[in-house]
Specification:
Length: about 220
């Protein structure tokens, strides 16, 4: 029986989640399988992979052939390296201790790379969040500035209205001042009307002298 190590799709539409399985090569992709070796979740960054390395190596030693995607995942988790080291032990090129030492050294190096990648991803997310906050702050400041500019003309109109008010008051009070200035003219008219009454008194002596001359004749 030909065995393949491949991915079996699960999860929701648009968010796939895969099982890593050893299955008969003649079986359907999402059909029956011989053994579940792990899971693969590509929806995270970096992708989350859980793998039974020893189980995968056992199937590889028994002749199972991984698909291209499964081979990449096995290589990422060190299953392909361990399979190579086990083959070296079988041939007598390495002892089991040496093979295990090399495998553990590789795992430590790989863990350091993964940790660095996770830090870079977290840093990128933090920077993106900071930029988004700055952009949002700039937009809010622009809105406030626009609101202030729209409100400014109304304030100026109110100030102009307040400045015009004293002139209106002067115009309203002006007729009263004119009436006071016209008062002397009225007094002059009264004096002119009283003047003719004084004239007969000045004429009276002349009339008396004429009567005296007539009596003397």
């Amino acid at each position: 029986m030909s065995v393949k190590i491949r991915l079996q799709r699960h999860g929701k539409k648009g968010k796939p989640f895969y099982w890593i399985v050893a299955a008969d090569a003649r079986a359907k992709r999402d059909g029956r399988f011989l053994e579940k070796l792990g899971t693969y979740n590509p929806n995270t960054n970096p992708a989350t992979i859980n793998l039974d390395v020893d189980g995968a190596v056992k199937w590889l030693q028994n002749g199972a052939q991984p698909t291209d995607t499964a081979k990449t995942i096995l290589s990422y988790k060190g299953a392909m390296l361990k399979n190579h080291l086990v083959g070296g032990v079988r041939k007598g090129a390495l002892t089991e201790e040496q093979a295990e030492e090399k495998f553990q050294a590789w795992l430590e190096e790989k863990a350091g790379k993964v940790a660095t990648k996770e830090e870079n991803v977290a840093k990128a997310k933090s920077e993106a969040k900071a930029k988004a906050l700055e952009a949002e702050k700039a937009v809010n400041e622009a809105r406030v500035a626009a609101a202030v500019e729209e409100a400014t003309p109304e304030v100026e109109e109110e100030v102009v209205a307040e400045e015009v008010t004293p002139e209106e008051v002067v115009e309203e009070t002006a007729p009263e001042v004119v009436a006071e200035e016209a008062t002397p003219e009225v007094e002059e008219e009264v004096v002119e009307e009283a003047a003719p009454e004084v004239v007969p008194e000045e004429v009276t002596p002349e009339v008396t002298e004429e009567k005296k001359e007539e009596s003397a004749e």
